[in-house]
Design goal:
It is a single chain. This protein has a domain of about 250 residues: MetI-like (MetI-like fold). The chain has 29 helices and no strands. The termini are far apart. About 0% of the residues have low confidence.
């Protein structure tokens, strides 16, 4: 007699709801974009492509995007590797302070950093105003266009190297470096012939991620590049805001999607080649070395401090001016008597001021909790049932990796700007729910990947023992499995929350006017038409967001909970001794 395994009714209902969500908000909008391009009754796909090819503005945007992607890959790779070497390989004085300065891009990024650079180096920026006193003939708009965008993004994107490349660098066995040094190799040879070849996979991954970031950049080209340096993403935004040009936006989105697929193929091909990390079973941590040549030593220190200063100046300008009055902000000059808490008081007392912040906190929190909850169940389901259905489901979850976020946003706008049966004939474009849906979709692949990986650390024998003792699967999961994967769950909650707290690229397509997220407000307040009050609010928003990001980073990455516990233990011991 064949035994048919009984399915959990709750799980069946969950899977039906999840599949509806996937079809309605992930697959259907992308199909709608393809339909709008290739099966449009008003114009054919070739007509849309010809319109793009014959448009000087569109072709210039595509060209600028590729220039930015290639240049950013080169400049950030150089700066990122130098930062890691200064912190982990060479013995640099004031290393702890330099380390803090290099960590600034981890908490000060996106639309916040673009706003900070505008106020620091823009035509009426703090540094520009200072320089004009001594060089009155200089061009006030010197910080704009391609040069300004690449400068900002070069240092803002080093977070990729500070997280991924630095962790891999620390894993190198120092014995291999010692062996090379014993054979007479110089530090330069060790770096280029031992260290970098060992880190080839992670280096290539960082390179691809940087190329992707440059190609799809939105905030910096839009806010600093201006009309002098337009790229694809701002053009898609412009075309989307005009109903007659949405087909052109769809074509550009498909172009980005095609490039994304090529990049993913290169990345997967690189991963299949294997792991190049050279780590022994009993590895020795890398010991920092002093640069013997006095001239090179001075040059290395100056370079390390210069990079730290570049990160530090906009950060300090935003922080200091958030505590100043309107006069100091309007004149871009700091005085002792100009410091005030008025800006922070305004945030706390004015509903129009604190509502965008509360809106972003709500959306970031809701999206993070929902996506982690969904992916926790799906990762567990796919991990346990390694069949064809689970494989297909996993590939569908990875769909947002194939298509850029802008394409999803545009697909949602085009698809649900009129009633559809799949969503009970509701119009979602302009609603409060559509931005939350987009946040959830784009966060699904990364969340799923990390949560699924965490289940491999669970000892199967523990689950088997619980099953033999008569424990239900739900009880086993809550009492045995969940505590083991909980650190990854909390980490993904924190990462997703931080990533969407000041989000702009998706939000600007999908937000409801009555619930503007903080990223959109910061962008609007940074325009030349914005008043002083808007600029002052931007500073406060940025400081609050950076504080939240720093706290999350401290607790998730720096083991903040144990650090605080140890501090209290030391204090308790010292009190008892006294």
């Amino acid at each position: 007699m064949i035994r048919i395994k009984r399915l959990n009714p709750g799980l069946v209902l969950f899977m039906i709801a999840f599949l509806w969500f996937i079809v309605a908000f992930m697959l259907f909008p992308n199909i709608e974009i393809l339909r709008s391009v290739f099966f449009n009754q008003e114009s054919s796909a070739m007509d849309s492509i010809k319109s793009i090819l014959s448009s000087p503005r569109a072709m210039r945007g595509i060209k600028n995007s590729f220039i930015l992607a290639v240049t950013l890959t080169c400049t950030t790779t150089i700066v990122g590797i130098l930062e890691v070497l200064f912190l982990e390989f060479f013995d640099i004085k004031l290393r702890k302070l330099v380390n803090l300065a290099y960590m600034i891009p981890l908490i000060f990024g996106g639309v916040m950093v673009a706003n900070g650079y505008i106020f620091t180096y823009g035509s009426r920026g703090f540094v520009t105003t200072f320089l004009l006193k001594y060089f009155p003939k200089m061009n006030p708009a010197w910080f704009s266009g391609y040069g300004a965008v690449i400068f900002l993004m070069t240092f803002a994107c080093t977070s990729t190297y500070m997280i991924f490349f630095r962790n891999s660098f620390k894993s190198i066995d120092y014995q291999t470096i010692e062996a090379a040094r014993g054979l007479g190799a110089s530090n330069t040879k060790i770096i280029f012939q031992v260290v970098l070849p060992t880190l080839k996979p992670i280096l290539l991954t960082c390179t691809i991620l940087l190329f992707q970031t440059g190609l799809m950049a939105m905030s910096a080209p839009l806010m600093i590049g201006g009309k002098q340096f337009e790229t694809i993403s701002p053009l898609i935004l412009t075309f989307t805001q005009r109903p007659t040009s949405r087909t052109l936006a769809a074509v550009l989105s498909l172009f980005l999607g095609l490039i994304q697929m090529i990049l993913l193929y290169v990345l997967q091909r690189n991963e299949r080649k294997g792991n190049f990390l050279s780590i022994s079973k009993v590895s020795t941590r890398i010991k920092r070395v002093k640069i013997a040549n006095p001239l090179l030593n001075v040059l290395a220190h100056l370079t390390a401090y210069a990079i730290a200063l570049i990160n530090l100046i906009p950060f300090l300008v935003v922080l200091l001016f958030s505590f100043t009055d309107v006069e100091a902000i309007s004149t871009r000059q700091l005085h002792w008597n100009s410091f005030s808490l008025a800006n922070y008081k305004l945030i706390l007392t004015s509903e129009s001021a604190y509502r965008p912040f509360l809106t972003s906190v709500f959306y970031a929190t809701a999206a993070s909790v929902i996506v982690v909850g969904l992916m926790l169940v799906m990762a567990r389901f796919i991990y346990k049932r390694r069949n064809r259905f689970a494989t297909v489901l996993e590939m569908i979850i990875y769909t947002p990796w194939v298509f850029p976020g802008l394409m999803f946003a545009l697909g949602l706008v085009i698809t649900y700007s009129h009633p559809h049966t799949i969503v009970m004939n509701n119009i979602l474009t302009g609603s409060l729910a559509i931005m939350l849906i987009a946040y959830i979709i784009v966060m699904m692949p990364n969340t799923f990947r990390f949560l699924k990986a965490s289940f491999f650390s669970v000892d199967q024998s523990l689950e088997d023992a619980a099953k033999n003792l008569g424990a239900k699967p739900s009880y086993t999961f809550l009492k045995i499995v969940l505590p083991i994967v909980l650190p990854t769950v909390l980490a993904m909650l924190a990462i997703n929350f931080n990533g969407k707290l000041s989000e702009y690229d998706l939000s600007v397509f999908l937000y409801n006017p009555i619930a503007k997220p903080i990223g959109v407000v910061i962008r609007n307040n940074s325009s030349t038409e914005a008043g002083i009050e808007g600029i002052s609010l931007n500073f406060v928003y940025s400081v609050i967001l950076m504080t939240i990001n720093a706290l999350v980073f401290f607790f998730v990455y720096a083991d903040g909970k144990n650090v605080i516990k140890n501090l209290f233990k030391k204090r308790k011991i010292s009190v008892n001794e006294n």
